[in-house]
Amino acid sequence: MKTDKLQGIENRYLTLEDKLSDPSVIENQEKWRKFSKEHAELGEIVTLYRQYKKVVETQNAALEILNDKNQEELFELAKEDLKEAEKEIEKLEHQLHLLLIPKDPNDSRNVILEIRAGTGGDEAALFVADLLKMYLKFAEHRKWKCSIVDMNETDLGGYREVICTIDGHNAYSILKFESGVHRVQRIPETESSGRVHTSAVTVAVLPEAEDVDIEISKEDIRVDVYRASGAGGQHINKTSSAIRITHLPTGIVVTCQNERDQRQNREKAMQILKARLYDEALRKTKSETAQNRKEQVGSGDRSERIRTYNYPQGRITDHRIGVSVYQMDSFMNGYMEPIIDRLIEADLNLKIKEGEGNG
C-alpha cells in the first residue's frame, strides 16, 4: 500500500482545514470555494485511510502479543484479532486502491447534451425524439434538472437537432460514455410494407465549462437576434428573443430560442459555446495522448458506432463492451443502468489495469 502518498493526502487535507478557517480565505469567496471543493474531494479517501491506520495498529498489537511468550494467555484472543485485522486491511487496501486511481477532472460537472439526426431522414429525426425522452427520464429518476435550450422540430414530431442542459451530481461521469453514433433498426410508422429500416443518430455529451476554463473575448463573437419559431408559447413569435452567437475564430455557431427573454437565451447560448470550445480543447488533448489508452471504453469519437437498438428483437447492444440487454421498453423509459453501470465498470477495470502496468 502506498502509505507515503496517502499520508501526503491526509496532510493536504489538514492544511485545507486550516485554510478554510482562515479569515483572509473566507473573505475571498473564489479561493474559499476552490479549497472547499478540494477538501470535500479528499474527504472520502482520508476517512478510509484513518480507518486503515487504526486497523494496522490492531494488527501490530496482535503480532506483538503473539511474539511475547509472557502473554500466552492472550494468544487465542490475539490470533482472532489478527485474523479480523488482516481481513479488514485487505478490504480497505482494495477500496483505497480504487480511490487512488486518477479521476477524470470533469466527472463532477454538469452536462450539455446534443442529439442530432444522421442517416435515415424522418425516421432518424423521430429517433432523436425517442432518445431525448430516454435521457430526460433517466435524469428525472436521478432527480437531475434538465432544460431544453434549442430544438429543430420536424413535421412528424421528430427533431433534426435538440440541445439541452442537465444539471446533477456527477452527471458527466455517468453520461460521458453516451457520446457517439446510436443506430436504430425498426419498422417506421410510415412503412407500409413492414420492412425494417436502419437509421442513425449522433449524441454528444459535453462537460459544462467553467469561467476559469474558457475566456471569450467580445471581439471574437458576433451576436444576432431574431424571432423564435416553433413550440414555446404565443410570446415566442412576438418579440426578437432568439439568439445566434457565432464564434469568429472557429466558426462555431450556437442558437438558443427556448428561454422567455433575450438575456436568458444569450446566457444559455454562451454556456453552450463555452462547453463546445472546452470540449474541442479536451478532444485535442485526448488525441495527443490517445496512444496511451488504445483500449479505452469510448474514444469520444462522434463517428464511432457505439450502440444498436433493434426493436424487432427487443434488443439493445453496446458494441464497446459486447453487452446486449433485452429490456427495450424499460431502457427507453430511462432505466439505462443495465448498460451504463457496465460501461463505468469496464472503464474502471481498464484504469486499474493501466495502474498496475505503470506501478
TrEMBL record:
Coiled-coil region list: 49-95
Annotated compartments: Cytoplasm
Prokaryotic-type class I peptide chain release factors domain segment(s): 227-243
GO cellular component, one term: cytoplasm
UniProt entry keywords in alphabetical sequence: Coiled coil, Cytoplasm, Methylation, Protein biosynthesis
Segments of this protein annotated with the region Disordered: 285-305
Modification sites for N5-methylglutamine: Q234
Presence of keyword Ion transport: no
GO molecular function: translation release factor activity, codon specific
Entry PTM: Methylated by PrmC. Methylation increases the termination efficiency of RF1.
Family statement drawn from the similarity comment of this UniProt entry: Belongs to the prokaryotic/mitochondrial release factor family.
Described purpose of this protein according to its UniProt entry: Peptide chain release factor 1 directs the termination of translation in response to the peptide chain termination codons UAG and UAA.
Name this polypeptide is given: Peptide chain release factor 1
UniProt lineage: Bacteria, Bacillati, Bacillota, Negativicutes, Veillonellales
Gene name tied to this protein: prfA
